[in-house]
Design a protein that fits this description.
Blueprint lengths: L4 H10 L10 E10 L3 E8 L4 E6 L4 H9 L6 E4 L3 H10 L4 E4 L1 H18 L33 H19 L3 H8 L3 H9 L3 H9 L9 H9 L5 H9 L7 H12 L14 H9 L7 H13 L1 H19 L4 H14 L2 H12 L1 H7 L7 H16 L6 H10 L2
Parallel strand pairs: 1-4, 4-5
Antiparallel strand pairs: 1-2, 2-3
């Protein structure tokens, strides 16, 4: 067809919008026009899974205005964004709101991850006490290099901790300390809030490594007689390892000096990994993962109670067996003795109680809305450089 691109775009803009008729079950979600700067909202008919309209922004007032023009809406499926909740309450008070269960579980996982991150120091397994145990105040074996010298990061952390706390005892303000030591105020606050230097070193000496997931494999291969670091690197690269042989050589250095563990090493405890274990169904954990999590909960009462609360709520949300009383009991228990992150989550869920309770008794979710948001990303990439809102809206509504 011999036609210019501008003429084609003008014809697309002139096409009539499709008539979707009455929409009784509506889905709504936001998508980015410019990430972190400008957002729009997509409205989906949950029966047909087709776009009904596209709003120029995600404010409550715009959503309320659209709902007032469509009084036939009886149910609204949404995430837990406050703007959509407020717009639905004002524009369609007759409609039931359904909070998406996946988003509630995602909010729970974020709260659990923040709690685990605050207790990062407890992820380290305590060293067994023996006659040659490291005395208090001295550098442990995990904090020195192969020559017995303290690692630079560890030595610097000890020095800064001492400098900052000496000045705090002297009465200096945090801002004055930051100016004198040429540190950011956030760094000074972090050092000042630490009860001991071990809290700071836990993040410095136990950082996750690309080789963590392959320690068990390397252990078994070494015991089988394969001690060539290059050969072992090629083997674990076939399993997904993306690093080089240098990391493998450093990991095997202890083996070459004769310090071969008698037992297979347990998985490295990282914040993300522990959060994943807590949020997964218990029956889906391996024996090693279950043992590692149980040992961690034995060492940390805070993480033990957090695991209990997270799993209780996850069961309520996943089963969807109309557990209204169990949900109310969970909110009350968390309010009494839950960590502050869980209390904050519970406060938001209490404000959104009606939508969450409705989600426990219906099969509706925001899955179809999320699928259309993914399709919008494809349309935006096809229109790179010409994605004005009016043209994008036409393509969303008219694309098959």
């Amino acid at each position: 067809m011999a036609v210019g691109k501008d003429s084609m775009l003008r014809l697309i803009r002139a096409l009539p919008e499709p008539d979707h008729g009455s929409v009784q079950v509506l889905g709504v979600d936001e998508f980015a026009l410019r990430r972190r700067r400008k957002y729009a909202a997509i409205l989906i008919g949950m029966v047909t899974h087709r776009p009904v309209d596209v709003l120029a922004d995600r404010t409550a007032a715009t959503f309320e205005s659209w709902l007032r023009r469509h009084p036939e809406v009886q149910m609204i499926c949404r995430d837990r964004a406050g703007s959509f909740r407020d717009g639905a309450c004002a524009g369609a008070p007759q409609a039931k709101q359904v909070a998406d269960i996946w988003h509630v579980l995602h909010n729970l996982a974020e709260a659990v991850e923040r709690i685990v991150g605050r207790h990062r120091a407890e992820l380290r397994e305590p060293l067994p006490m023996s006659a040659d145990a490291t005395p208090a105040g001295e550098t442990s074996a995990t904090e020195v290099d192969i020559h017995g010298r303290p690692r630079p990061l560890v030595a610097r952390t000890h020095e800064r901790y001492q400098q900052i706390h000496e000045r705090i005892q002297r009465g200096d303000s945090l801002r004055a300390i930051a100016r004198e030591l040429r540190l950011s105020r956030g760094t000074v606050v972090r050092f000042a809030e630490a009860a001991e230097v071990g809290e700071l070193l836990s993040a410095a000496t136990d950082r996750p490594s690309m080789i963590d997931d392959y320690r068990l494999y390397l252990h078994h291969r070494w015991l089988e007689g394969c001690t060539n670091a290059s050969a072992l690197t090629r083997e674990i690269q076939q399993l997904g390892y993306r690093g080089g042989p240098g990391t493998v050589q450093r990991h095997l250095r202890a083996y070459r000096t004769g310090a071969i563990p008698t037992n297979a090493p347990l998985p490295q405890l990282t914040v993300r990994r522990v959060t994943n274990w807590i949020m997964r169904r218990p029956e889906h954990l391996t024996d090693t993962e279950r043992k590692s999590l149980d040992d961690l909960c034995d060492r940390s009462p805070v993480l033990a109670i957090t695991t209990e609360y997270a799993r209780r709520l996850a069961v309520i949300l996943r089963e969807r067996n109309n557990e209204h009383l169990a949900f109310e009991v969970w909110l009350a228990d968390v309010r009494l003795d839950g960590q502050r992150e869980l209390r904050t989550l519970a406060g938001g869920m209490r404000r959104d109680r009606a939508a969450i309770l409705t989600a426990l008794t219906t099969t509706h979710s925001s899955g179809a809305v999320e699928g259309n948001v993914t399709r919008i990303k494809l349309l935006k990439r096809q229109m790179y450089g010409r994605a004005n809102f009016d043209l994008l809206r036409r393509r969303i509504l008219l694309s098959p």
